[in-house]
Amino acid sequence: MALLQALRANDVGAGRTVAEWERDLLSSAPHSNGPVVHRSRVPADWVDYNGHVHESRYLQLFGDATDALLGRIGVDAAYLVEDGSYFTVETHLSHLRELAAGDAVEVTTQILDSDEKRLHLFHVLMRAGEPEPIATAEQMLLHVGAASGRAAAAADGILERVRRIRESQAALPRPERAGRSISISG
């Protein structure tokens, strides 16, 4: 896997194929306005020396959920080349409980706010069949133009899909953990 990732990072050989496959996954995401959910199963190689999932893998799950949302709003392979993409500029991740190898999980994503250049997301990671969250992540994403490499407005079609999802989520309460900060003193 590490070899394929290194080849992908350098756009060489089998790595180029992996990168194309990943971009094609974005293109195959359905365009709908329903809840944005990403489902997965925790692989055994994510478990660290403590016997539970390493903290970096929680962020991996939230990143995969963000990718699922981007696919839903139309950020596909063609859009990446011609128009750009959203990049995460800030993340606040809260680890609430532990995951173990083999756990079936799902991440729900709520769009808290958006404008022409930004997406403010809140993810909740749940273990299948359990009522309490495992972790949450609040993220700010910035749209960057493909040609300029700078912050730029997303295309109208993308903005329209974001608007529709936000409207479908309008009745959802604002998550309790949204907007929290980290400090030692109260």
Give a verbal description of the structure.
- A 5-stranded antiparallel β-sheet has the order 1-3-4-5-2.
- Mean pLDDT is 87; it is low at 21-33.
- It folds into 2 domains: 1-30, no CATH class; 35-168, Hotdog Thioesterase (Thiol Ester Dehydrase, Chain A, Roll), CATH 3.10.129.10.
- The longest helix is centred in the middle third of the chain and has 19 residues, at 55-73.
- It contains 5 helices and 5 strands.
- With 186 residues, it is α+β, with helices and mostly antiparallel strands.
- Helix 1 crosses helix 2.
- 33% of the residues lie in helices and 28% in strands.
Number of helices: 5
Characterize the largest beta sheet: strand count, sense, and whether it forms a barrel: 5 strands, antiparallel
Listing every helix as H and every strand as E from the N terminus to the C terminus, the arrangement reads: HHEHHEEEEH
Shape annotation: globular
Structural domain count: 2
Number of strands: 5
By CATH, the superfamily of the largest domain comes out as Hotdog Thioesterase
CATH structural fold name of the largest domain: Thiol Ester Dehydrase, Chain A
- Mean pLDDT, all residues: 87
Task: Return the CATH class of the largest domain.
Answer: Alpha Beta
